[in-house]
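Dear colleagues,

As part of the handover before I leave the project, I'm documenting each prediction I ran so the next person doesn't have to rerun anything. This entry is a single chain, and its sequence is reproduced below.
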Amino acid sequence: MRYKLLGRSGLRVSEICLGTMSFGTRWGFGGDMEACREVFDAFRERGGNFIDTANKYHEGESERIVGNLVSDDRDRYVIATKYSLSMASGDPNASGNGRKNLVRSVEGSLGRLGTDYIDLLYLHAWDFTTPEDEVLRGLDDLVRSGKVLYIGISDTPAWIVSRLQTTAELRGWTRFVAMQLQYSLLDRTPERELLPMCEKLGIGVTCWGSLAQGLLTGKYTRATGEVDTMRTGASDRLNDHNRAIAEAVDAVADELSTSSTHVALAWVQRRGKQLFPIVGPRKRSQMDDCLGAVGVQLTDEQAQRLEAVATVELGFPHDFLKGEFVRKVIYGDMLDRLELP
């Protein structure tokens, strides 16, 4: 396992992050403590140190399991958790991005994790109600208190994140070092705004859904007999377009004598130095398969072939500004003499 600095920070994290939304059984899926320990041990044995959870996952059970698993060597691991989602029915302040829910959520997470600090705290989802300065100052206060070391943001529009990051910089408050978002060969829309923004603002990107609910692992395209569509979100995505992408991944995997999982994760990693796939296996064999992606390299031709099948329209103004006529009127007769990205 290789390690990278997370965003514009000195925090060293493993190139693959262990997602724990399947740690627990309160939601009707996932694994018990024994199954989770097997997954965790496989990750730890390969040198993984970056663990992602959230207070909402299995109504707190995931955090308790993570806390138990790291208890014998807590400081070795970088634990990321989240706040924002509702944790109590009937209570309007038990959800959202406001300071009251923020403080309440962090205290709850610290107790469940059995620790006195959180390495990375994400705002889980933008609520479109809390003032931006309240969010930033609340997060900054937690960092200054020592209960949180770094902050991140998840599932939020690019224009909001850029405003928050710029405001934090101008006021001397703690800035985001990470953003979590959905990204895979089947979900490339972050390339429109979110990924370029993160690159420019020094924000690392942790990618959930990098295997597209298992559609890019080969289990649907290579399987014989009845296809398992029980995994959430998989059955309604088995269309011709997505199947073609999955089969292209399978073809590249065959060329490299590796698994489709390896190819899908390797593609995400090659898209930028600051992209960290989050993998959420439910059993050790799946964890071993995901970890096998470490060191897998795609050729430029293979990557281009995958991207040709999984094209994404950038839309306005990006496609407009890339047009030959528009570029000529922007740069005039200097177009062929300027070094442009």
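The chain has two domains: 3-310, 313-341. Confidence is low (pLDDT under 50) at residues 228-232.

All the best with the project,
I.
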